[in-house]
Amino acid sequence: MGNFVLGALAPHPPIIIEEVGGRERIKAAKTIAGLEELARDLVAEAPDTIVFISPHGPVFQDGIVILGEEKLKGDFKAFGAPQLQLEYANDTDLAGRIAGAAGKKGIFAAVADRAEARRYRVKLELDHGVMVPLEYFSRAGFKGKVVVMGMAWFQPSELYDFGMAIQQAVEAGPGRVAVVASGDLSHRLTPEAPAGYNLRGREFDQAVYQALKERDFIRILDLEPSLLEAAGECGYRPLNILLGAIDGYDVESRVYSYEGPFGVGYLVAGLAPKGKSGVQGKLVEDFRNLRRKRAAGARLGQHPVTALAMASLEHYLRTGEYLDEYPPLTGDLPQRAGVFVSLKKHGELRGCIGTIAATQPDLAREVIHNAVSAGTEDPRFFPIELEELPELTCSVDILGEEEPIDSEADLDPKLYGVIVRRGRRSGLLLPNLEGVDSVEEQLRIVRQKAGIGPDEPVELSRFEVKRYYSTPPPTCVFLG
To answer: CB under 8 Å to 319, separation ≥6 — which residues?
Structure first.
């Protein structure tokens, strides 16, 4: 039986490599010291294999790719140090067991050789998300094998499930294994940061720091999607996989260092297993129950429009037919109008489709048809499945009359939606969307949706909406 000996979160700025950063690396002195200490602790555990999860490896929407070459190589040529090269043997047996364990959980994972790498259009070389921490481990004396994988755009609980598959694969085989989640925290800590500045970047970093220190792993899983987006991070998803890999263990957590030079948060942390006492999967099931209860609570007392949208989608998923018996929509609602239905799962968009103007005999049928379309026909997502419904919330936008305008000066992204047209190309963007705070950004997005270039002349129209939520709209909290 294999042994899980250590989990770690490690940042990966190439500038902390001496051959790359030179004297500039001293600006990240705390991170360097933290990684050196983590490396000593890791090597002291004598792992036969280190599993790396990198956000800069292959990234897919619906599956995880594990590098499958017998030898895994990489260099720092892209960072001005081609002479610095790494080569490690791949633990292909463990890689295969991970893919197999993931498959039993219904998670697609593939071990990619050269042929499959061409098929998936991925590179099999080590990326800097692996090479930076691996260089520190190598200098500390690590001489074992590695397993290297990218990540997927899964929900936190699904990433956690994949981490549990890693644990099962480790315990099913021989040897001592460490798991390293490679990732930086917020890239938006200062005005000079590479991804721009956002006040919530520090909020995200502090939340992760405290949760790891206090071993409050549900808090990490439960971070709001709006906070992740605001932070501009790259370590959250690898971290969720790591948490799944230590599921059921009693762990001793240690934060080696944290700092934010260059406007990017670097956290070095270790999670040392001290035996098992928990039931595998209990934490993630508790988390799922928390989300289900929250979504159910959000739907209590919801407006009849959103209630109709959710009832319509559920009826269609159960019967394959559109809802044909429903209470009338009354009050100050229009008889007919264009409608957009947006569906979210744990705060992340799961489907959104609508109509600019009325296409059905009445407003209720417009809502019914567009709710089904949002749940089953949005090309950006797989169709929603019946078991997902308890975790969904929705909003319904009822569009006012379209009003042609002469100038961008007549727009306000918080008050008006916008429609752009050029010939047969057209695009629409709803108002009051999170992250769309200027007319310039609103027009950039809607032009992109329509396939219209930034300098092409367009016809502009605006419209107002009445938005109805199945949950109260999010409140942004800004911390000084």
So the answer is: none
